[in-house]
Amino acid sequence: MEFKTFVFYFLAVIMVFAALRVITARNPVHAALFLVLTFFNAGGIWLLLQAEFLAITLVMVYVGAVMVLFLFVVMMLDINLDRIREGFWSYLPVGALVGILMLVEMVMVLGGSYFGLEAMPAPPPAGESFSNTRELGRVLYTDYVYPFELASLVLLVAMVAAVTLTLRKRKGIKGIPASEQVAVKREGRVELVKMQAEKED
Amino acid sequence: MESMLQPVADFFGPAWPAVWTLAKIVAIIAPLMICVAYLTLAERKVIGYMQVRIGPNRVGPKGLLQPIADGVKLLLKEIIVPSSSNKGLFILGPILAIAPSLAAWAVVPFDDGLVLANVNAGLLFLLAITSLEVYGVIVAGWASNSKYPFLGSMRAAAQMVSYEVSMGFALICVLLISASLNLSDIVTSQGTGMFADMGLGFLSWNWLPLLPMFVVYLISGIAETNRAPFDVVEGEAEVVAGHMVEYSGMAFALFFLAEYANMILVSILTSVLFLGGWLSPVGFLPDGFHWLAIKTAAILFIFLWARATFPRFRYDQIMRLGWKVFIPVTLVWVFVVAVWLMSPLSIWS
Q1: Which residue from A103, A142, B102, B290 has the highest number of Cβ atoms inside 10 Å of its Cβ?
Q2: Burial letters for A165-190: b for 16+ Cβ neighbours within 10 Å, e otherwise?
Q3: Is the pLDDT of residue A102 over 90?
Q4: With an 8 Å Cβ cutoff, is B309 touching chain A?
């Protein structure tokens, strides 16, 4: 067995196991941490495909930022496991339907004549100086610059919307604006007085 | 060197690349651990002198064996696992803390060509690995199943994610002007320019054209490593010691090692990205690893100096500084550098 194949199966087995644990783990914090492990191994597999930019960005964005905030929320939830399990059987038909639908779609995409191994052969091996990051950047900012900028604008709008939805100006709070606190000078608060030393005589 | 190692390579056969890489990893990690040990002594000595004390001076000549004594003490102490903690994650916490802070050293260039992994996306790798550091704190805080550690880990999660953003923007400026994600290339690109040709290399390093970014990066680095004055994560007056409350012995020591290894990492990265790495500041002196060591030591001194000088920030002030000061400043400066780079006034053509 080639070393690369070994690495692939090593990463893939851990990834599938972790992905299964995400949905079977009882504790939501464990589930979130297994999701981190899944992302990490997915990043490793992408590295094997020489997509180093995508792999590192996956780790950086999803593991480094998104999952941290996710954990932040999950840890603070007070989840009653019994109450969640109550609804399991009533939700099962809907869940199974969605699952089967997704499975069928994936089989159609991957097994069909458009995306099979014959239709999408492996790309020729890249040269020594080939930089995945450079190529992606070039394509993103030339051929796909409008969709790219549009996507960033959508994200910006979503961000502004989230801020305005949660922003509330409460009246009557006793907090002092931080800018005023930062602008405080020593002269306004403390007066240094020169005093003669007191002596006993 | 190659011919000398040939018999050893023959002995190991196909396993040789793995063995050789392991040897190189040990050659990086072992000195690093010694540096960490003596950084703790340096910290206590420097802060001692700044507060008109002597600092540790009992163990060995001038207290030089103090870190060894501390290490032995921590090794021999019992590790107590709280009965109501989440045991698996409680053990995993310190491991998650130290692993990324050691993994990041794989791409740090020590001299021309002296680097464990000379990868093209080195800077990205660093960003990804350093963003994992927060997990150790979060997992430890949650698994302890105790209030202060949990508060500490909540603070850590918010603080480290916030300062990563401004750090990332500062790095974007660096890679804009050096047009490379490879750390060795970033260093060599700082060795060219008008001042470097005049023999005044230190003026053509990145710190001068990117002065605001240099300052932002350094301060964000202090915040990322949870050092004073940004150490609210473990602020002993408010949350006792944050995520480390329930840890004892070597488990506690691992957090300590991770924190100091991170400090050295941030310092060496600041030297590599902004202060020309192993390049000599003046033309008539040769380049070499010693320059990197001197620069790193100087920045580490700033870390200790800041700890002895500033009182701890209040938590909301930390978040305000990160989001309302650093991120706007870095965003504007990224734009300025991008325009500068494309204008006829560009100094990086």
Answers
A1: B102
A2: eeeeeeeeeeeeeeeeeeeeeeeeee
A3: yes
A4: no
In the predicted structure, residue B164 carries a pLDDT above the cut 70: yes
Say which of B89, B121, B317 has its CB closest to residue A53.
Answer: B121
In angstroms, the CA B332 to CA B349 distance is 22
ipTM exceeding cut-off 0.85 for this assembly: no
Which of A39, A72, A135 to substitute to test the interface with B, most B CBs within 10 Å? A72
All residues of chain A having their beta carbon less than 8 Å from the beta carbon of residue B142 are 29, 71, 75
Using a CB-CB distance cutoff of 8 angstroms, which residues of chain B are in contact with residue A63? Answer: 128, 131-132
- Percent of chain A at pLDDT above 70? 87
- Percent of chain B exceeding pLDDT 70 equals 98
- B-chain residues near A56 (CB < 8 A): 121, 124-125, 127-128
Q: What is the mean pLDDT of chain B?
A: 85
Q: Is the pLDDT of residue A82 over 70?
A: no
Helix boundaries (H) for chain B:
2-12, 16-50, 66-76, 87-103, 122-130, 134-143, 147-178, 183-189, 194-197, 211-224, 249-274, 289-309, 315-320, 327-342
